[in-house]
Amino acid sequence: MKQFFARFSRRTWIIIGVVAVILLAVVFANSGGEPVSPYQTSPAERGDLQAFVGATGTVRAKQSAVLTWQTTGIIQSVNAQIGDVVTKETVLASLDKASLNQSVILAEADLVSAQKDLDNLLNSDTALLEAQQAVDKAEKAYEKAYNWRMQLNGKIDIKEYVYDQFGNLRLKEYRGYAGQATIDQADKDLALAESRLNDARREYERLLKGEESEEVAAAKARVEAAKATLNQMYLIAPFNGTITQASLVVGDQVTAGTSGFRIDDISSLLVDVQVSEVDINSVKVGQEAVLVFDAILNKEYNGKVVQVGQAGETVQGVVSFTVTVELTDADELVKPGMTTAVNVVVEEVEDVLLIPNRAVRLIDGKRVVYVLRDNQPLPITVTLGASSDNFSVLASGDINEGDLIILNPPAQFGGPFGGG
User: Which of 83, 87, 205, 403 is most buried when burial is the number of CB atoms within 10 A of its CB?
Assistant: First the structure.
C-alpha cells in the first residue's frame, strides 16, 4: 500500500486535497449548511381539484341499424356508399323486378287497387249521401209501420171485398176490431222496419267518422301490407344518418338475410360505461366528463352524463351500473366502436389545501401523512375529502400551507394510500 501512495508526488497530493475541499464546499452550500435529507418532499399548496369517477366504454351512435334483404333477387342499383349522409326513406339499393318471386311482383298491383279503394273512402261523398238517403227512407218506413200498429189497438176502418145477393163482388167499408193475425203481422212489419232503420243509421254514422272508420282502417292496412311486400325489393334508410358499412355490388345475387348497409346517426355519439356500486351515487345526470382515446393521441374530448342506470348488474361478483355519456364536441376522428376512457367530474372544489396521494399512508386503519419538521419525519393523522388521481383535499389534520410533505417515507412508516 505504501508503494501505491509513494507513486504520487507532493504536488499531486496538494491538487487532490484542493479538489476535495472544493467538492465538500459545493455539497455544503447546496444543502443550506445542513445535512442533505434522504426524503423527497413537496410543500403543501392550495389549489383547485376535480374529483373523477373513471371507467372505459365503447362509442356508439344514437341510432344504428343494419339493413338486410328480405327476399331473393339480383341487385339492380346501388345508390349509396360508405360516408354518404342520407335522409329517412331514401332508397339505398334495389333489386331487378324480373328476379323477384311472384308475391313481390303481384304486390305492386295489390298496392294500386288498395290505394284506389282508400282514396274513394277518403275523398268520395257518394257513399255518405247514399247512406243519408237510406236513413231517410228507413225512417219513413218505420213511421208508417208504427202508425199502422198503433191503429190496431182500437177500432179501425176495415175495407174488404164481398159478394152481394146478386153474386157481384163489391167493396165493403166498416169500422171494427182487427183480428189477431193482422196484429201479429203488423208487429213483424214494425220490427223489421226498426231493424232496417238501425242498420241505416249505423252505416251513416260509420261513414261520418271518415279516417276514423273501421273501413278506412282496413283499407289503410291493405295499403301498408302491399307496400311492405313491395318494399322487399328495396333497402330503405329508416332514419337520417351516415352510411358506415356497405357490401353491395350491382349484379350480385342476394337472399333473405343478406347484409347490405349499416347506417348510424352520428350526429350524437354516446358511450356506455360501467360504474361500480361504490361510486354510482356520486354520478348524476348533467355532470361533465372528459374522454380520451387510444386511437386519437394528444387530444381530449368533453361530454356530459345523460343517463344513469337505476338497477345494477352483477358480473363475477361485482355489482355495476350503466352510465351513458354523450360527447359534446365530437369530430370526424371519433367513430362508433372506438374504445375510450371516461372520467366523470363528480365534484369540483376551489382554493383548498391539497395533499399528494403518494404521500398518504395507512397505519392501523388511519390515514397518515409525514411532514418534515426540524429535518425529522413527523406523522400527522389526516382526514381526506374529494380525491383525484394525484391529489386529495385535506379535510382535517395539523398540516399548513408550505409544510414539507414527505413523498417517500420508508416502508416502516406504513403502506401506501389505497392498500398495502
Answer: 403
Question: What is the per-residue DSSP string for 289-339?
Answer: EEEEETTEEEEEEEEEEEEE-SS-EEETTEEEEEEEEEESS--TT--TT-E
Residue 19 lies in a domain: yes
User: Hey, what's the cell of 20?
Assistant: 476535495
pLDDT at 268 over 80: yes
Going by pLDDT thresholds of 50, 70 and 90, the confidence category of residue 272 is very high
Cell of 120: 274513394
Range of the domain at 310: 47-61+268-416
Grid cell listed for 87: 335522409
Instruction: Please work out, in degrees rounded to the nearest 5, the angle formed at the alpha carbon of residue 26 by the alpha carbons of 25 and 31.
Output: 100
Q: pLDDT by residue (tens digit) across 60-86? A: 999 999 999 989 999 999 999 999 999
User: What CA dihedral angle connects 350, 355, 358 and 363, to 10 degrees?
Assistant: -130
**Chain position carrying cell 374504445:** 339
- Are both 412 and 274 inside the same structural domain? yes
The answer to whether the beta carbons of residues 334 and 58 sit under 8 Å apart is no
**393 and 369 within one domain:** yes
- Please give the angle made by the CA atoms of 405, 409 and 411, to the nearest 5 degrees: 160
Q: How confident is the model at residue 4 (pLDDT cuts 50, 70, 90)?
A: very low
The Cα 44–Cα 27 span in angstroms is 26
Q: Which residues make beta-bridge pairs with 300? A: 292
Tens of pLDDT, residue by residue over 181-195, are 888 888 898 899 899
Phi first, then psi, for residue 89 (nearest 5°) are 75, 5
- 80 phi and psi angles, rounded to 5 deg: -150, 155
Please give the single-letter amino acid code of residue 333: L
Residue 74 lies in a domain: no
Nearest-5° angle of CA 134, CA 136, CA 140? 115
Distance CA(414)–CA(418), nearest Å, equals: 11
The answer to whether the CB of 269 falls within 8 A of the CB of 59 is yes
**CA–CA gap between residue 122 and residue 56 (Å, rounded):** 56
Which domain CATH number covers 285?
2.40.30.170
For cell 282502417, the residue is 217
What cell numbers appear for 199 in the block? 242498420
- Shared-domain flag, residues 293 and 408: yes
Strands 318-327 and 45-61, how do they pair?
Answer: unpaired
Q: What is the rounded distance in angstroms from the CA atom of residue 200 to the CA atom of residue 203?
A: 5
> Are 409 and 275 members of one domain?
yes
